[in-house]
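Archive maintenance. Older records in this collection stored only the sequence; we are now back-filling the structure field for every entry so that each record is complete. The fields below show one back-filled record exactly as it appears after the update. Entries are processed alphabetically, and KR domain-containing protein is next in the queue.

ARCHIVE ENTRY
Title: KR domain-containing protein
Organism field: Streptomyces galbus
Length field: 281
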Amino acid sequence: MIVITGGNGHLARQAITHVRKIAPRERVIAAVRRPEAATDLDVEVRYADYNDPGSLDSAFAGADQLLLVSGTEFGRRITQHTAAVEAAVGAGVSHIVYTSAPRVDTSDLVFAPEHIGSEQVIQQSGVDYTFLRNNWYHENYAPAIREAVRTGLIVGNAGDGALASAARQDYAEAAAVALVQDGHRNKTYELAGDVSWTYAQLASTVADVTGYAVTYRDIEPAERRGRLAAAGAGQGEIEAISGIEENISQGALAHTDGSLSRLIGHPTEALADGVRRILAG
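Back-filled structure field:
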């Protein structure tokens, strides 16, 4: 039996779909904070909240494998993930697949410490693990892509740094493969799209897809933070976005070696195809 956390999230939902496609006889449980929002899922749903350890004990009961989708509360991930790992150990889980972040053991990414800390908690538990160090999703840029069509401009402080994003669907399929196919236990995968790109290339891709003139304007981090504040972003979001773009400018998300496409058995979604899909959605 496989339990997938964050069951209401896009990644988890897509992972559920892929698990059932690859291994239709596998029993899958969606662990969610809001069961009332998961009534459309065609699997068993259990309440689970990383901030409520007791709920994790009951959600993970009977599981052999766990897809631990990393939490979204910056600053609380290690505590939350520790609670999940402890519940998994108590439930007798033999394999934890964890969605981590790129090169967290060597990277200066602003959120790297929480992910490497979470990986260490899992390793110290003695349970078999698979770490999926996912690069960025194309979908992270959906707001910027739509705004670019309206304004003709993409703004950021990423300089000419590149990143190797892929579709969320690609990463979800990788998670399903790690869960249901043999040979992935106690391995770490650096996963990314097949081709890296810069913000300037994103702008030119949006222009090519839409026929509109779109350019990239690189600005200083202080101005970027000011623009985000003026747009209504909270302080944590402001620091995260600006900090990540500074990381991108330094090459922290540029690495790609084809590991994701090899794991899923086909090329990752091209940036232009992702832009088309986002604009059609």
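Update note: The chain has eleven helices and eleven strands. The two ends are 33 Å apart (CA to CA).
Entry marked complete.
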